[in-house]
Write a structure and sequence with these properties.
This protein is an alpha/beta fold. It has two domains: 166 residues, Rossmann fold (3-Layer(aba) Sandwich); 145 residues, Nucleoside Triphosphate Pyrophosphohydrolase, CATH 3.90.79.10. It has nine helices and 13 strands. The strands form three sheets. Strands 7, 8, 9, 10, 11, 12 and 13 form a seven-stranded mixed beta sheet that branches. The protein has a four-stranded parallel beta sheet with strand order 2-1-5-6. The chain has a two-stranded antiparallel sheet with strand order 3-4. Helix 4 links the parallel strand 5 and strand 6. The chain is elongated, with a radius of gyration of 24 Å. It comes from Candidatus Yanofskybacteria bacterium CG10_big_fil_rev_8_21_14_0_10_37_15. InterPro entries: NUDIX_hydrolase-like_dom_sf (IPR015797), NUDIX_hydrolase_CS (IPR020084), NUDIX_hydrolase_dom (IPR000086). It holds the Pfam family NUDIX.
C-alpha cells in the first residue's frame, strides 16, 4: 500500500491500445490492474462492446457513431498524458491489429513512450529492447523505480534507432504572446495594456497569444492570435523575452516543454470582442495590473520585463 500511495504522487497515466474485437477481456484485466495500483488510464473508458462494424468495435460509452470520430477522440488522449505518460499495447501472441497499428504510428510521431505486452508480429514497427513488458512486471518496475523504463538499444540496431528517432516530432511547443498596449491621444492619459481572464489559467489574467502553426512566422502568428481572440488589428513591435514555461506555473497542459516568445504589440482601438477562449478582459496601466490583478506566473514575468523595458526607454529619452 505504501508503494501505491507513492506512485499517485508521480501521476503516471496511460492509454491502452489493442484489438477490442480479439483481446477486449485482456484489455479490461490490464485496465483494472493499472488503475488499482495508481496508474490513471485515460482511455478506453471501460464499458462493454456494443457492436462490431467492419471489424471496428464500438463501446457502449462511445458518444459518437462515426468510427473515424471515435478513433480521433481516442487519439486526442495522447496529448493529455503528461511527462509520466505512456501508451501500453495489449497484444497477446504479438497481434496488434489494424486500428492499434494506426494508433501506434500516431503515438510514435507524437513522442509518446510506447510499451508492449509482446513483441509485435503483425507490424514492422521498430521496438527497442526495453519496451516489451508483461503488465505485471511492468507495473512492478514502475512501483519499485518510480519511473518508466529507459530505452535500451542493441548494437546492431543503432542505425535503425536513429532513423526511427528522426521521425519523432519534437516534444516542444512554441507560443507567442503580446503585451498589447494602447496609448490615447488625449493628454495626461497613461498607457494601458490588455489582459484577459481565462479558465485554462485557473481564472487568472494572462496575455493574449497562442501556438505558432507549422511554417508560420512568429509575428504573423501573434497578429493572427490577437485578431482571433480579441478582434483587434495589431502591429507587432519589440521583442520582450523568450523563456521556458516557469516551473510549477500551473499551465493547463503538463508534460510539454512550452517555449514562450513575447513581444510588445500596439493597437489603435480598445474595442475588444472576445472569442470563446477568454471570459473577461481589462485595460489598465501595467503597474496597476501588477499590483491589483491575479496574473498567472508566465504573464507576470513578461509584464515585469515589459515594465523594466518601458522605464529604461523612458529614461533614455
Amino acid at each position: 500500500m505504501e508503494k501505491e500511495l507513492k506512485i499517485e504522487k508521480f501521476n503516471f497515466q496511460c492509454v491502452l491500445h489493442g484489438s477490442f474485437r480479439k483481446h477486449f477481456g485482456e484489455i479490461k484485466r490490464i485496465y483494472q490492474l493499472f488503475t488499482e495500483n495508481g496508474i490513471g488510464v485515460l482511455a478506453p473508458t471501460m464499458s462493454e462492446i456494443k457492436t462490431i462494424e467492419g471489424g471496428f468495435a464500438m463501446l457502449e460509452s462511445d458518444q459518437e457513431k462515426d468510427p473515424r470520430m471515435i478513433e480521433l477522440l481516442y487519439l486526442h488522449n495522447l496529448k493529455r498524458l503528461g511527462e509520466n505518460g505512456f501508451s501500453y499495447f495489449v497484444n497477446p501472441e504479438g497481434y496488434i491489429g489494424k486500428s492499434a497499428s494506426y494508433e501506434l504510428g500516431i503515438a510514435h510521431v507524437s513522442n509518446v513512450r510506447c510499451f508492449f505486452q509482446e513483441k509485435p508480429t503483425d507490424h514492422p514497427a521498430y521496438v527497442h529492447k526495453n519496451s516489451v513488458w508483461k503488465p505485471e512486471r511492468f507495473l512492478e518496475f514502475i512501483l519499485n523505480n518510480e519511473r518508466l523504463p529507459e530505452p535500451q538499444i542493441k548494437k546492431n540496431d543503432e542505425t535503425i534507432y536513429k532513423l526511427w528517432e528522426g521521425l519523432i516530432m519534437p516534444g516542444s511547443v512554441v507560443s507567442v504572446g503580446g503585451i498589447i498596449e494602447y496609448e490615447s491621444n488625449k493628454p495626461n492619459r497613461e498607457k494601458e495594456v490588455l489582459l484577459v481572464k481565462t479558465h485554462k489559467w485557473g481564472n487568472q489574467y494572462s496575455v493574449v497569444g497562442g501556438r505558432v502553426r507549422r511554417n508560420e512566422r512568429l509575428e504573423d502568428a501573434l497578429v493572427r492570435e490577437i485578431k482571433e481572440e480579441t478582434g483587434l488589428e495589431s502591429l507587432a513591435g519589440e521583442h520582450i523575452c523568450t523563456f521556458d514555461q516557469i516551473k510549477n506555473s500551473g499551465y493547463y497542459l503538463s508534460g510539454i516543454q512550452h517555449i514562450f516568445v513575447d513581444k510588445v504589440v500596439r493597437v489603435s482601438s480598445k474595442n475588444v470582442c472576445l472569442n470563446e477562449e477568454a471570459q473577461d478582459y481589462v485595460w489598465m496601466p501595467p503597474q496597476n495590473a501588477l499590483r491589483d490583478l491575479s496574473i498567472e506566473p508566465n504573464a507576470r514575468h513578461t509584464l515585469e520585463l515589459y515594465m523594466r523595458m518601458f522605464a529604461k526607454n523612458k529614461k533614455a529619452r
